[in-house]
Amino acid sequence: MSEFRFEGRVVQAEDGETVLEALLRSDIDVAHGCKAGACQSCVLRTPSPPTSAQAGLDETLVEAGAFLSCLAKAGDVSEVDRLDPDAVPRYPATVRASRRLSSDVLLIQLEAEGFSASPGRFVRLVHPSGVLRPYSLATPAWDSSSSIHLHVRLIPNGRMSFLLERIRVGQALEVVGPFGKCRYRSETRSEPILMVGSGTGLAPLYGIATDALHQGHLGPIELHHGAATGDRLYFRQELADLERRFPNFRYRPYADSAPHNTDAIGSPLDGALALHPKLDGFKVYTCGHPDLVRMAKRKCFLAGANLKDIAADAFEDAGKS
Fold first, then answer.
1. Could you give the CA distance from residue 151 to residue 136 in angstroms, rounded to a whole number?
2. Angstrom distance (rounded) from CA 201 to CA 163
3. Which of 11, 65, 193, 257 registers the highest number of CB atoms within 10 A of its CB?
């Protein structure tokens, strides 16, 4: 057993519990989502945060003592408080457009005055009902900095899915963030870039690719994207347009079954590594299903990619949200 103080109240924690688990078991209401460190909904602060619980947090949040309560062991902290709301920017946003990209993916376009972020990072979208969920920024780099494009995976019986399927142009929402470090870095303009993703993991990869191309990236960029079936490989036209406009960009689609004529069968990771068995000097971006991301990080490292050159964003399941 261990204990820590939360806003002056003593919280008893069982052996091995995380800070978040101890708080929830004690009926203390704190925001949370995936419970795996991906959505960053459970950020709290402590005077001496464990660095292992700060993975993926922005430098400004790290400097403020923020940590992910779902990753920190309760025995590693003594004083915990909620993060100052002013430490994370919040922007009122207005829905500008909404359209289906596939049977289970929706494109939501927002306008948030004053907002600015590199494509590939993510925000938390807050509905007026209080429902919130993290979404990566798929905004093309040449669009307005206050414009926000989100690829929303529609989850059966999901609360946010239900709300966004019925969203109307002009409706007010709120955007919190940006968060994360998955973005293009212009100091790597000449190095080859390999992108591997699945499902709506395409959102940050597309955004990062447009950013790299917009900034005049000189090396080749390959985007390998997979889905269960060919009809779920959305954004084909937009990616084909990038291929036509930029000779150093290549899009490679994969489907587990029912492919289109241009699709390969199988995993985008396997396809990428078959073409590039040695990744020394590559910058690697991998986003999407957690299993794919974990496997991609390991296999790309074993193929020669430097760990510091592998940027990953696992789309952890946030439940029926």
1. 8
2. 21
3. 193
